[in-house]
Write a structure and sequence with these properties.
This protein is an alpha+beta fold. It has 6 helices and 3 strands; from the N terminus they run ααααβααββ. The chain has a domain at 39-131.
């Protein structure tokens, strides 16, 4: 369990901890966070979509299940908010994310007929970022 959740252990001399206010815990946990760039979220979104493309690349699901259309809906849910960098940055938001993802997907294999991004925290909640017929930019 420790191996899964523990990255580092820092041990300080007792003298360094003597200035802690009475009753304050001497075991400290470093919080995640800090500076980030929206590029990390863009790359994470592209990586996840490419993983789905690769997973279904040879499945022939459209033919095997007589599907008229085989689409992918990618949603940015509460779990994504907890484990990824935020989409929003200075001059950057969901529309910019969708545009960058659309550009990256233009040359991907035609596994899905359409790919959509769903972001429930913005006015424009769903954006089509890919079409096998004509690549669309948001």
């Amino acid at each position: 369990m420790l191996e899964k959740y523990l990255d580092d252990v820092w041990i300080f001399p007792r003298q360094k901890m003597k200035n802690l206010p009475a009753g304050q815990s001497w075991v400290l946990f470093e919080g995640s966070g800090g500076a980030y760039t929206p590029d990390w979220m863009v790359q994470a979104a592209i990586d996840r979509i490419c993983a789905k493309i690769k997973k279904h690349e040879h499945d022939n699901l459209r033919t095997n299940h007589s599907l008229a259309e085989f689409d992918l809906l990618c949603y940015y849910c509460d779990e994504a908010l907890l484990h990824n960098t935020p989409i929003d940055g200075i001059g950057f938001g969901f529309p910019q994310l969708a545009s960058r993802v659309a550009q990256a997907l233009a040359n991907e294999p035609k596994v899905f007929d359409k790919i959509f991004l769903f972001y429930p925290y913005d006015k424009e909640q769903v954006v089509q970022v890919y079409s096998a017929r004509v690549a669309t930019a948001a």
